[in-house]
């Protein structure tokens, strides 16, 4: 007999590093989710930009079931056919020539940062070890990745943190020029900052970052954990910037919810992770790789990618129409289906109120900090779900504004 759980069970058995809502989802199909009470939600959150093909996609379900009858796990002392097929497809779709598989974006970034330092060590020496990242960035939760990430709240209480890491304001090339030097081994950036407020890189800024890296013999690392695998309307966002990184990381949508991450790079750079220098017990798991291969076969089509651009326009038009009525946003921005709506100054700090009330209205959304509403739905969300979800979001705004006006 399956034991029944409630929200209170979390407080009894889990470490309190999360604060989940009372919603207990039990089923999902496409862009809709149902909780254990039978309430239906339209999903504009996508599991934080993960379920890019929605819930229970039949092709992915079949891929998982078929693989479950074959192999669940292989150690890295054997040749792994599903991992090699996936790696081949990733290299065919990108600048990359070599792939390392992990289980998450944080692990992929950990590998990327270690590789950047190891490559500099091999080709220059230990003095070339500094990494420059950007304030408001997010790269994972390991001690190394939170230190590279530009949000001090994630390192507080865990010091001493790894050294040799500097931070710069995003989209500020002059500040970066003052920080970069011949000691810099890598500059790490998100093409569009997700957790930091859904802030896209300026095209000229991205190009100048590439030029600075080249001038100082530093590697350019793109964290595309959130922006990659079709999220922005191209398979990876770097394709729209006209800039090619040296190392790229991917996860989230890559497995549509099944844990998988990848670090992509060139043959020359990859050679610094020689035998024994890095590893992952579950990285390249056959089940994960089979599912990820099915994901990229679907997302990497013109139909899906062009559909992302069309859906972006529907969302932006809908948000602007809502804003014309209620004047709640001072900026609506983003790329593809990673969209941020920044609250006006009068509503600063109230993102959590919109987040909570949207669930009451049967809509799942995200925030990116206290002032930005973030939307990251399925890339194939039906247009009727977009329309219905925006109606629920408008109702959310009405309730929140009415509630705040009475306080």
UniProtKB/TrEMBL annotation:
Co-factor: note: Binds 1 pyridoxal phosphate per subunit.
Reactions performed catalytically: N(2)-acetyl-L-ornithine + 2-oxoglutarate = N-acetyl-L-glutamate 5-semialdehyde + L-glutamate
GO terms, molecular function: identical protein binding; N2-acetyl-L-ornithine:2-oxoglutarate 5-aminotransferase activity; pyridoxal phosphate binding
Pathway stated in the Swiss-Prot or TrEMBL entry: Amino-acid biosynthesis; L-arginine biosynthesis; N(2)-acetyl-L-ornithine from L-glutamate: step 4/4
Enzyme Commission number(s) from the entry: 2.6.1.11
Enzyme class, broadest EC rank: transferase
Cofactor(s) the protein needs: pyridoxal 5'-phosphate
Binding locations of N(2)-acetyl-L-ornithine: 141, 280
Primary location recorded for the protein, binned into one broad class: cytoplasm
InterPro entries named among the record's database cross-references: Ac/SucOrn_transaminase_bac (IPR017652), AcOrn/SuccOrn_fam (IPR004636), Aminotrans_3 (IPR005814), Aminotrans_3_PPA_site (IPR049704), Class-III_PLP-dep_AT (IPR050103), PyrdxlP-dep_Trfase (IPR015424), PyrdxlP-dep_Trfase_major (IPR015421), PyrdxlP-dep_Trfase_small (IPR015422)
Subcellular location(s) per record: Cytoplasm
GO CC terms in record: cytoplasm
GO biological process, one term: L-arginine biosynthetic process
Positions where N6-(pyridoxal phosphate)lysine occurs in the chain: 252
Other facts: May also have succinyldiaminopimelate aminotransferase activity, thus carrying out the corresponding step in lysine biosynthesis.
Family: Belongs to the class-III pyridoxal-phosphate-dependent aminotransferase family. ArgD subfamily.
Subunit structure as annotated in this protein's UniProt entry: Homodimer.
Protein name listed in UniProt: Acetylornithine aminotransferase
């Amino acid at each position: 007999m399956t034991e029944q759980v409630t929200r209170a069970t979390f407080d009894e058995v889990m470490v309190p590093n999360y604060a989940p809502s009372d919603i207990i989802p039990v089923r999902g199909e496409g862009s809709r989710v149902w909780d254990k009470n039978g309430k239906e939600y339209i999903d504009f959150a996508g599991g934080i930009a993960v379920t890019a093909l929605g819930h229970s996609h039949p092709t992915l379900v079949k891929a998982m079931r078929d693989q479950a009858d074959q192999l669940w796990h292989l150690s890295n002392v054997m040749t792994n056919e599903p991992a090699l097929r996936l790696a081949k497809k990733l290299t065919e779709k990108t600048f990359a020539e070599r792939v390392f598989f992990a289980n998450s974006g944080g692990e992929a970034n950990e590998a990327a940062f270690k590789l950047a330092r190891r490559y500099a060590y091999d080709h220059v020496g230990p003095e070339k070890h500094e990494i420059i990242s950007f304030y408001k960035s997010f790269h994972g939760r390991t001690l190394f990745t939170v230190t590279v990430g530009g949000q001090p709240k994630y390192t507080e209480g865990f010091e001493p943190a790894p050294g040799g890491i500097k931070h710069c304001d995003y989209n500020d090339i002059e500040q970066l020029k003052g920080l970069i030097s011949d000691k810099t081994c890598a500059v790490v950036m998100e093409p569009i900052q997700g957790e930091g407020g859904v802030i896209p890189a300026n095209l000229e800024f991205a190009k100048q970052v590439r030029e600075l890296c080249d001038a100082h013999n530093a590697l350019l690392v793109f964290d595309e954990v959130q922006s990659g695998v079709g999220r922005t309307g191209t398979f990876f966002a770097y394709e729209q910037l006209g800039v090619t990184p040296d190392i790229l990381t991917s996860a989230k949508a890559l497995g549509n919810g099944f844990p998988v991450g990848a670090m992509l790079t060139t043959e020359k750079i990859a050679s610094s992770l020689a035998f024994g220098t890095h590893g992952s017990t579950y990285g390249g798991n056959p089940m994960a790789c089979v599912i990820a291969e099915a994901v990229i076969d679907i997302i990497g089509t013109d139909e899906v990618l062009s559909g992302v651009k069309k859906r972006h326009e529907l969302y932006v038009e809908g948000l602007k129409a809502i804003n014309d009525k209620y004047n709640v946003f001072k900026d609506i921005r983003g790329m593809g289906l990673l969209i941020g709506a920044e609250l006006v100054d009068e509503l600063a700090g109230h993102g959590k109120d919109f987040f909570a009330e949207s669930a009451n209205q049967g809509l799942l959304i995200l925030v990116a900090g206290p002032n930005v509403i973030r939307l990251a739905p399925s890339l194939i969300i039906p247009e009727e779900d977009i329309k219905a979800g925006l109606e629920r979001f408008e109702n959310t705004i009405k309730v929140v504004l009415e509630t705040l006006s009475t306080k």
